[in-house]
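User: I'm curious whether this sequence folds into something compact or stays loose and floppy. Could you predict its structure so I can see for myself?
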Amino acid sequence: MEIIEFELTQDYIELIKLLKLLNLCESGSEAKLIVDEGLVKFNNAVEFQRRKKLRKNDIVLFQDTEIRII
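Assistant: Here's the prediction. I'll summarize afterward.
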């Protein structure tokens, strides 16, 4: 499993923006589909909110990638 530490420079980042920013999907529309299909976990629970606000200490799991928000 690949682990990515993403350093947050604002109060939060939205889930679909994070997926796109880290190139885990090719476009915003693909990121929306990924979330809609329940393929993303947020703090060990399936997350369906596209614009879920991610803050420091949150963990996102997608495929074989764990993203730690620091």
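Summary: The longest helix spans residues 28-36. The chain has two helices and seven strands.
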